[in-house]
Specification:
- The protein has helices spanning 16-36, 39-88, 97-124, 129-138, 140-179.
- The protein is mostly helical and 180 residues long.
- α2 (39-88) crosses α4 (129-138).
- The chain starts with 15 loop residues before the first helix and ends with a helix.
Length: 180
């Protein structure tokens, strides 16, 4: 996770917090690179570098957990819209295997997104940063596992959507051929 100086939304300046964080990162990186040059203390600095890397991953996970709610709501709204479109089709309820697979994939994706939101809420509950760091470390595996489950469900949903679309196009082509 790399930090960059970011402008705040309210003004064109740089947020003081971002400057302080970036300065701290620069200072730590400088000390670590100097320490690596001295063999006796090199192992200590390698340990510190590893700690910094782990810390940055933890900060990234917490930021990601805080952003999940908005993303998840957008995804769920999209799935609801797709489900409505499927139900409005002329062949809705015809029990076509592709349609069943698509509906099942949509349900699984929806459930995996809800599980990811639950894991993100465990991390970001109670807004204090210290508690979020602690929870981020504790719930790391569950959060990462939930993210992987969402990605897998998205792949399955995309495949089911492609198959369903292919079936719809084939049916339309058959109807057009019959008319001609």
């Amino acid at each position: 996770c790399s930090t960059t100086l970011a402008a705040t939304d309210e003004d064109e300046g740089v947020a003081p917090r971002d400057v302080a964080i970036e300065t701290a990162h620069l200072a730590v990186d400088s000390v670590l690179s100097l320490g690596g040059a001295v063999p006796v203390v090199g192992d200590f600095f390698d340990l510190i570098a590893n700690f910094k890397e782990q810390w940055m991953q933890l900060v990234g996970r917490i930021d990601e957990a805080n952003e999940v709610a908005t993303w998840a709501q957008d995804e769920i709204n999209l799935l609801d819209d797709i489900k409505k479109q499927i139900n409005r089709r002329a062949d809705a309820g015809s029990n076509v295997l592709a349609e069943k697979a698509l509906k099942r994939a949509a349900i699984e994706l929806n459930e995996s997104i809800k599980q990811l939101v639950a894991e993100a809420n465990r991390i970001s509950a109670d807004g204090t940063r210290a508690k979020q760091y602690f929870r981020g470390a504790i719930h790391k595996r569950n959060f990462e596992s939930a993210k992987e489950a969402v990605e897998e469900a998205r792949k399955i949903f995309s495949q089911a959507l492609a198959v369903d679309t292919n079936e719809m196009v084939r049916a339309i082509n058959q109807k057009l051929d019959a008319l001609l």
